[in-house]
Amino acid sequence: MKRKSSSLDDITLRFESGSSSACSSLLRMSSPVFDAMLESGMKEQEEKTIDVTVASKEDFDLFYGLLQPGAGLVGKQKIVEKNVDALLTLASYYQVSFLQKACEEALLGLPVSVQRLLQAKEHGLARQQSRCIRGLAWSCTKEDLKMIHEASPDLVLRLAYVMRGYDQEDGEGEEEGEEEEEEGFVNDPVVTIP
């Protein structure tokens, strides 16, 4: 989707495949990363140009469109399976928290997979991590466990906690029914066998 230039556009975004104009105020309000880049005295502010190396021009145009006021209400630009990965990468890189949350909401409706679990870990999406761990606890293969362990050993531990029925948040607790059994054993009278 080609984006129209606005009279408010005062900065150039350079991509590998071209350039486009943007409103620096919108970028600064939405992102602490852009805000820091465009501070007085910074190269980007002086040159009025930002090199965007983390996304294609098309992906960034969609991202930029979602930053604009009312973008979520208009419904023209939606976060869907086809674009959620690129949007999440941009939202995380530029620290746009409201867009990260919107991407997580979209991911919560997609099928669970090892790749989605690792993506959730990388981008700090707690609800998506928990959902993927619960979903994978009973279906992951030996290869899945190896892949998860190589990427993040703590995720394997959390997965093991869920498989064992422990509280996944802190790893503490007992399996269902275990507490009652132990109490019953402790309170049983001692029987001596001659």
Overview of the structural elements:
The protein has 194 residues and is mostly helical. The chain has 2 domains: 8-99, Potassium Channel Kv1.1, Chain A (2-Layer Sandwich); 111-166, no CATH class. The chain has helices spanning 24-30, 32-37, 43-47, 57-67, 71-74, 84-93, 97-107, 114-123, 126-136, 142-151, 153-164, 178-187, and strands at residues 11-15, 18-22, 49-51. α8 packs antiparallel against α9. It is elongated and about 60 Å long. The N and C termini lie far apart (87 Å). The relative contact order is 0.08. Residues 173-194 have low confidence and may be disordered.
In short:
This protein has twelve helices and three strands; from the N terminus they run E-E-H-H-H-E-H-H-H-H-H-H-H-H-H. By secondary structure, the protein is mostly helical.
CATH class descriptor name of the largest domain = Alpha Beta
Q: Under CATH, the topology of the largest domain is which? A: Potassium Channel Kv1.1, Chain A
Could you give the count of β-strands?
3
Helix content: 55-70%
List low-pLDDT spans. 173-194
* Distance between the amino and carboxyl termini: 87 Å
- How confident overall, as mean pLDDT? 83
The total count of helices amounts to 12
CATH superfamily of the largest domain, by name, is Potassium Channel Kv1.1, Chain A
Q: Give the CA-based shape.
A: elongated
What's the order of the H and E elements?
EEHHHEHHHHHHHHH
**Classification by helices and strands:** mainly alpha
Q: Over all CA atoms, what is the radius of gyration?
A: 24 Å
What is the annotated CATH architecture of the largest domain?
2-Layer Sandwich
- Tell me the strand order in the biggest sheet: 2-1-3
Main sheet? 3 strands, mixed
Number of domains: 2
The oligomeric status of these chains comes to single chain
Give the amount of beta strand, in percent: 5-15%
